[in-house]
Amino acid sequence: MKSEHFYLVFQPIVKISNKNTLIFEEFEVLLRSIKTQKFPANMFYELLANEQKYNQYIDWFTVELEKKMQACPDIKFSINIDVDQFQFKSTFHFLKYFSRYHEKLIIEITEHTPKNNPKLLIELDDILKKIKNHHFNIAIDDYNEGINTLFLYKKHRKYYDRIKITLFGYKSILIIIGLVIYVNIVKFLFSKKIEIVVEKIDTLRKSKIMKKLSVSQQQGYYFRTDSTLIRSFTDYEYYNNLGDQIVK
């Protein structure tokens, strides 16, 4: 897989301080097609059906991700991994290689059903255990969507350090309120910290509502500008782009 097919963009996961200051200290790595500037869904699913092509892709992704991490050692990154990707040994080799960066890399397990190897869902506990053995923090992505149901979360909750949920209507607000209560109980009873990140924040009003619900980690189009959703950056170039928006 040649690099001219894809590129990476980096969307900020913003932390809002008690003084309502935006803190940019983490970026989610997103895959984009050079041709469409969107997630290349069809091409990615083709990769998942062909081990040789997938291995070429993961080699390219390894090089690109490491370049960004080395250029910005004080920044955390989060990456999406479909359960289907664990059908290939190269995914586990990827995790082993990046274990040296485990403090700066969060693994998000997506909501997509494994189509090529459905039995991977049965093996999910073992997969999550292997990720934890490399000392990564794990996020359940798009909670309450696809395979990432309440049942699945309860079954594997000991492995998850973060819950990501999309803000979409009043029902999602009720779910978020329930999650806030849950993580506070877990913190109080078991001293275990579980983060909540709310996605699809596209207005100031939504951001303020989430902050009032004690959700300070947010992500979405409201925080996306030409200077924060960046295709490439090296040697902290984005600090110059973001200017006063960054709190070091």
From TrEMBL:
Cited SMART domains: EAL
Gene3D superfamilies on file:
EAL domain
A molecular function annotated in GO for this UniProt entry is: cyclic-guanylate-specific phosphodiesterase activity
Specify the superkingdom.
Bacteria
Q: Which InterPro entries match?
A: Cyclic-di-GMP_PDE-like, EAL_dom, EAL_sf
Per the record, the coiled-coil ranges are: none
Query: Can you say what this protein is called?
Result: EAL domain-containing protein (Putative c-di-GMP-specific phosphodiesterase class I)
User: From which source organism is this entry?
Assistant: Weissella soli
The organism's taxonomy opens as: Bacteria, Bacillati, Bacillota, Bacilli, Lactobacillales
